[in-house]
Design a protein that fits this description.
This protein has 272 residues and is α/β, with parallel strands linked by helices. The chain folds into two domains: 13-195, 3-Layer(aba) Sandwich (Rossmann fold), CATH 3.40.50; 206-271, rRNA adenine dimethylase, C-terminal domain (Helicase, Ruva Protein, domain 3), CATH 1.10.8.100. It has eleven helices and nine strands. The protein has helices at residues 23-33, 52-59, 69-76, 118-126, 141-148, 158-166, 206-218, 224-227, 234-239, 253-265, 268-271, and strands at residues 19-20, 40-44, 62-65, 85-88, 107-112, 132-140, 167-175, 180-181, 188-195. The strands form two sheets. Strands 4-3-2-5-6-9-7 form a seven-stranded mixed β-sheet. A two-stranded antiparallel sheet has the order 1-8. Strand 2, helix 2 (52-59) and strand 3 form a beta-alpha-beta unit. Helix 5 (141-148) crosses helix 6 (158-166) and helix 7 (206-218) packs across helix 10 (253-265). The longest helix has 13 residues, at 206-218. The chain is elongated.
Protein backbone atom coordinates (compact mmCIF):
# COMPACT_ATOMS: atom_id res chain seq x y z
CA UNK A 1 0.00 0.00 0.00
CA UNK A 2 1.44 3.39 -0.94
CA UNK A 3 2.19 5.71 1.94
CA UNK A 4 -0.07 8.33 0.40
CA UNK A 5 -3.00 6.17 -0.69
CA UNK A 6 -6.52 7.40 0.05
CA UNK A 7 -5.63 9.86 2.88
CA UNK A 8 -9.33 10.32 3.37
CA UNK A 9 -9.94 11.51 -0.21
CA UNK A 10 -13.01 10.02 -1.85
CA UNK A 11 -12.50 9.37 -5.57
CA UNK A 12 -14.86 11.61 -7.53
CA UNK A 13 -16.86 9.95 -10.25
CA UNK A 14 -17.30 13.16 -12.25
CA UNK A 15 -13.51 13.46 -12.59
CA UNK A 16 -13.15 9.79 -13.49
CA UNK A 17 -10.74 9.28 -10.58
CA UNK A 18 -9.08 5.91 -9.92
CA UNK A 19 -5.98 6.08 -7.74
CA UNK A 20 -2.94 3.87 -8.19
CA UNK A 21 -1.85 2.13 -5.01
CA UNK A 22 0.28 -0.86 -6.07
CA UNK A 23 3.94 -0.06 -5.30
CA UNK A 24 5.39 -2.59 -7.77
CA UNK A 25 3.24 -1.23 -10.63
CA UNK A 26 4.06 2.38 -9.68
CA UNK A 27 7.76 1.54 -9.75
CA UNK A 28 7.49 -0.06 -13.22
CA UNK A 29 5.64 2.98 -14.58
CA UNK A 30 8.25 5.39 -13.22
CA UNK A 31 10.99 3.19 -14.73
CA UNK A 32 9.19 3.44 -18.10
CA UNK A 33 9.02 7.24 -17.84
CA UNK A 34 12.66 7.35 -16.68
CA UNK A 35 12.58 10.91 -15.29
CA UNK A 36 15.92 12.74 -14.97
CA UNK A 37 16.94 15.89 -13.06
CA UNK A 38 16.50 19.22 -14.90
CA UNK A 39 13.94 17.86 -17.36
CA UNK A 40 10.70 19.68 -18.14
CA UNK A 41 8.33 17.15 -16.56
CA UNK A 42 4.59 17.78 -16.43
CA UNK A 43 2.10 15.47 -14.78
CA UNK A 44 -1.58 15.58 -15.70
CA UNK A 45 -3.91 14.70 -12.82
CA UNK A 46 -1.41 13.90 -10.04
CA UNK A 47 -4.25 12.81 -7.77
CA UNK A 48 -2.84 11.59 -4.45
CA UNK A 49 0.73 11.75 -5.74
CA UNK A 50 1.31 8.02 -6.36
CA UNK A 51 3.47 8.80 -9.43
CA UNK A 52 4.34 12.37 -8.42
CA UNK A 53 6.36 11.35 -5.37
CA UNK A 54 8.70 8.78 -6.99
CA UNK A 55 9.16 11.04 -10.05
CA UNK A 56 10.17 13.95 -7.81
CA UNK A 57 12.57 11.65 -5.92
CA UNK A 58 14.37 10.99 -9.22
CA UNK A 59 13.97 14.28 -11.05
CA UNK A 60 13.50 17.09 -8.54
CA UNK A 61 10.99 19.82 -9.42
CA UNK A 62 8.05 19.16 -11.75
CA UNK A 63 4.84 20.90 -12.89
CA UNK A 64 1.38 19.42 -12.38
CA UNK A 65 -2.03 20.19 -13.88
CA UNK A 66 -4.87 19.28 -11.48
CA UNK A 67 -8.53 20.21 -11.91
CA UNK A 68 -9.77 18.90 -8.54
CA UNK A 69 -9.56 21.79 -6.06
CA UNK A 70 -9.30 19.48 -3.03
CA UNK A 71 -6.37 17.56 -4.52
CA UNK A 72 -4.61 20.76 -5.64
CA UNK A 73 -4.99 22.11 -2.09
CA UNK A 74 -3.61 18.88 -0.62
CA UNK A 75 -0.56 19.05 -2.92
CA UNK A 76 0.09 22.71 -2.00
CA UNK A 77 0.28 21.69 1.67
CA UNK A 78 2.06 18.37 1.25
CA UNK A 79 5.06 18.15 3.65
CA UNK A 80 7.43 16.67 1.06
CA UNK A 81 5.99 17.41 -2.38
CA UNK A 82 4.85 21.04 -2.10
CA UNK A 83 8.29 22.66 -2.45
CA UNK A 84 9.03 20.65 -5.62
CA UNK A 85 5.76 21.44 -7.42
CA UNK A 86 4.46 24.17 -9.68
CA UNK A 87 0.70 23.57 -9.54
CA UNK A 88 -1.67 24.65 -12.30
CA UNK A 89 -5.20 24.28 -10.97
CA UNK A 90 -6.81 24.07 -14.41
CA UNK A 91 -8.64 21.79 -16.80
CA UNK A 92 -6.01 19.90 -18.84
CA UNK A 93 -8.39 19.93 -21.83
CA UNK A 94 -8.07 23.74 -21.98
CA UNK A 95 -4.55 24.16 -20.65
CA UNK A 96 -1.85 25.70 -22.87
CA UNK A 97 0.92 23.13 -22.45
CA UNK A 98 3.02 25.02 -25.00
CA UNK A 99 3.43 27.85 -22.48
CA UNK A 100 5.61 25.57 -20.30
CA UNK A 101 8.05 24.60 -23.06
CA UNK A 102 11.32 26.24 -24.06
CA UNK A 103 13.60 25.41 -27.02
CA UNK A 104 16.21 23.71 -24.81
CA UNK A 105 13.62 22.06 -22.55
CA UNK A 106 10.96 20.16 -24.50
CA UNK A 107 8.03 18.80 -22.51
CA UNK A 108 7.92 15.33 -21.02
CA UNK A 109 4.25 14.82 -20.16
CA UNK A 110 2.89 11.91 -18.12
CA UNK A 111 -0.14 10.93 -16.12
CA UNK A 112 -2.87 8.50 -15.18
CA UNK A 113 -5.48 10.10 -17.46
CA UNK A 114 -9.18 10.13 -16.53
CA UNK A 115 -10.67 7.56 -18.88
CA UNK A 116 -13.79 9.62 -19.57
CA UNK A 117 -11.78 12.40 -21.30
CA UNK A 118 -8.73 10.47 -22.54
CA UNK A 119 -9.41 10.70 -26.30
CA UNK A 120 -10.15 14.46 -26.48
CA UNK A 121 -7.21 15.07 -24.13
CA UNK A 122 -4.83 13.11 -26.40
CA UNK A 123 -6.02 15.20 -29.38
CA UNK A 124 -5.47 18.40 -27.37
CA UNK A 125 -1.95 17.30 -26.35
CA UNK A 126 -1.04 16.38 -29.94
CA UNK A 127 -1.58 20.02 -30.89
CA UNK A 128 1.56 20.81 -28.83
CA UNK A 129 3.61 17.95 -30.29
CA UNK A 130 6.34 20.24 -31.70
CA UNK A 131 7.24 21.18 -28.12
CA UNK A 132 7.05 17.67 -26.70
CA UNK A 133 9.89 15.17 -26.28
CA UNK A 134 7.66 12.30 -25.17
CA UNK A 135 4.45 11.41 -23.34
CA UNK A 136 3.64 8.45 -21.09
CA UNK A 137 0.02 7.82 -20.20
CA UNK A 138 -2.00 5.29 -18.33
CA UNK A 139 -5.15 4.74 -20.32
CA UNK A 140 -7.91 2.22 -20.72
CA UNK A 141 -6.27 -0.79 -22.41
CA UNK A 142 -8.79 -0.59 -25.25
CA UNK A 143 -7.74 3.02 -26.00
CA UNK A 144 -4.07 2.01 -26.18
CA UNK A 145 -5.03 -0.86 -28.51
CA UNK A 146 -6.89 1.61 -30.73
CA UNK A 147 -3.91 3.99 -30.79
CA UNK A 148 -1.50 1.25 -31.80
CA UNK A 149 -3.78 -0.68 -34.20
CA UNK A 150 -2.82 -1.27 -37.81
CA UNK A 151 -5.32 -1.26 -40.67
CA UNK A 152 -7.45 -4.35 -41.45
CA UNK A 153 -8.21 -4.53 -37.73
CA UNK A 154 -11.41 -3.67 -35.84
CA UNK A 155 -9.58 -1.40 -33.39
CA UNK A 156 -8.21 0.73 -36.26
CA UNK A 157 -9.89 4.12 -36.53
CA UNK A 158 -9.51 7.89 -36.29
CA UNK A 159 -7.50 7.67 -33.06
CA UNK A 160 -5.05 5.20 -34.66
CA UNK A 161 -4.55 7.38 -37.75
CA UNK A 162 -4.29 10.76 -36.04
CA UNK A 163 -1.94 9.45 -33.33
CA UNK A 164 0.31 7.40 -35.62
CA UNK A 165 0.52 10.22 -38.16
CA UNK A 166 1.96 12.50 -35.46
CA UNK A 167 3.78 10.08 -33.11
CA UNK A 168 5.51 6.79 -32.67
CA UNK A 169 3.05 4.75 -30.56
CA UNK A 170 4.60 2.21 -28.16
CA UNK A 171 2.43 0.16 -25.78
CA UNK A 172 4.61 -0.38 -22.67
CA UNK A 173 2.70 -2.56 -20.18
CA UNK A 174 -0.76 -3.71 -19.14
CA UNK A 175 -2.19 -3.16 -15.66
CA UNK A 176 -5.13 -4.95 -14.03
CA UNK A 177 -7.93 -3.19 -12.08
CA UNK A 178 -6.57 -4.41 -8.72
CA UNK A 179 -3.72 -1.85 -8.91
CA UNK A 180 -6.27 0.96 -8.38
CA UNK A 181 -8.60 2.26 -5.73
CA UNK A 182 -11.46 2.09 -6.52
CA UNK A 183 -10.76 -0.68 -9.07
CA UNK A 184 -12.01 0.39 -12.53
CA UNK A 185 -14.20 -2.01 -14.51
CA UNK A 186 -11.61 -2.19 -17.30
CA UNK A 187 -7.98 -3.17 -17.80
CA UNK A 188 -5.45 -0.38 -18.19
CA UNK A 189 -2.23 0.04 -20.14
CA UNK A 190 0.72 2.41 -20.35
CA UNK A 191 1.54 3.91 -23.74
CA UNK A 192 4.62 5.89 -24.80
CA UNK A 193 4.12 8.52 -27.50
CA UNK A 194 7.18 10.06 -29.19
CA UNK A 195 6.31 12.85 -31.66
CA UNK A 196 7.88 12.36 -35.09
CA UNK A 197 10.73 14.83 -35.68
CA UNK A 198 9.78 14.91 -39.35
CA UNK A 199 6.92 13.32 -41.29
CA UNK A 200 7.94 11.38 -44.40
CA UNK A 201 4.54 11.56 -46.04
CA UNK A 202 2.94 14.82 -44.86
CA UNK A 203 -0.67 15.91 -45.25
CA UNK A 204 -1.39 19.37 -46.62
CA UNK A 205 -3.81 20.02 -43.80
CA UNK A 206 -4.19 18.10 -40.53
CA UNK A 207 -7.79 19.30 -40.16
CA UNK A 208 -8.68 17.71 -43.50
CA UNK A 209 -7.12 14.40 -42.38
CA UNK A 210 -9.19 14.55 -39.20
CA UNK A 211 -12.34 15.36 -41.21
CA UNK A 212 -11.72 12.46 -43.62
CA UNK A 213 -11.26 10.12 -40.63
CA UNK A 214 -14.45 11.37 -38.97
CA UNK A 215 -16.37 10.84 -42.22
CA UNK A 216 -14.93 7.35 -42.68
CA UNK A 217 -15.34 5.98 -39.16
CA UNK A 218 -18.62 7.66 -38.31
CA UNK A 219 -20.28 4.73 -40.09
CA UNK A 220 -17.50 2.20 -40.24
CA UNK A 221 -19.62 -0.64 -41.63
CA UNK A 222 -20.30 1.30 -44.83
CA UNK A 223 -18.05 0.90 -47.87
CA UNK A 224 -15.82 3.85 -48.65
CA UNK A 225 -17.87 4.43 -51.84
CA UNK A 226 -20.84 5.29 -49.59
CA UNK A 227 -19.10 6.94 -46.65
CA UNK A 228 -17.04 9.29 -48.86
CA UNK A 229 -19.62 10.06 -51.53
CA UNK A 230 -19.95 13.72 -50.44
CA UNK A 231 -16.16 14.19 -50.56
CA UNK A 232 -14.94 12.05 -53.43
CA UNK A 233 -16.52 9.93 -56.18
CA UNK A 234 -16.03 6.18 -56.70
CA UNK A 235 -14.10 6.97 -59.90
CA UNK A 236 -11.78 9.30 -58.02
CA UNK A 237 -11.24 6.66 -55.33
CA UNK A 238 -10.26 4.21 -58.06
CA UNK A 239 -7.91 6.80 -59.58
CA UNK A 240 -6.11 6.90 -56.21
CA UNK A 241 -5.74 3.11 -56.41
CA UNK A 242 -8.46 2.51 -53.78
CA UNK A 243 -11.16 -0.11 -54.22
CA UNK A 244 -14.50 1.66 -53.54
CA UNK A 245 -15.94 -1.54 -52.03
CA UNK A 246 -13.42 -1.53 -49.15
CA UNK A 247 -14.43 -0.54 -45.62
CA UNK A 248 -12.73 2.31 -43.74
CA UNK A 249 -10.61 -0.04 -41.60
CA UNK A 250 -9.08 -1.62 -44.73
CA UNK A 251 -7.29 1.59 -45.78
CA UNK A 252 -3.78 2.27 -44.47
CA UNK A 253 -2.47 5.46 -42.88
CA UNK A 254 -0.85 6.36 -46.23
CA UNK A 255 -4.20 5.82 -47.98
CA UNK A 256 -5.83 8.30 -45.58
CA UNK A 257 -3.03 10.81 -46.21
CA UNK A 258 -3.58 10.46 -49.99
CA UNK A 259 -7.35 10.88 -49.51
CA UNK A 260 -6.93 13.95 -47.30
CA UNK A 261 -4.57 15.59 -49.79
CA UNK A 262 -6.93 14.81 -52.68
CA UNK A 263 -9.91 16.32 -50.81
CA UNK A 264 -7.80 19.34 -49.86
CA UNK A 265 -6.75 19.91 -53.49
CA UNK A 266 -10.27 19.39 -54.89
CA UNK A 267 -12.47 21.52 -52.62
CA UNK A 268 -15.33 21.35 -55.12
CA UNK A 269 -15.91 17.80 -53.88
CA UNK A 270 -16.71 19.12 -50.44
CA UNK A 271 -19.78 20.91 -51.71
CA UNK A 272 -21.24 18.28 -54.02
Amino acid sequence: MSKNSHLGHQAKKRFGQNFLHNEAVISQIVDAINPEPNENLIEIGPGLGALTEPVIERAGDISVVELDRDLAHRLRHHPFLAKHLTIYEQDALKFDFGSLASPDKPLRIFGNLPYNISTPLIFHLLSFKDKVKDMHFMLQKEVVERMAAGHNCKAFGRLSIMTQYQCQVMPVMEIGPEAFQPPPKVDSAIVRLIPHKSIKNPVNNLKTLNQVCLTAFNQRRKTIRNSFKKLISAEQLSSLGLDPSLRPENLSLDDYIALANFVDEHPVNKET
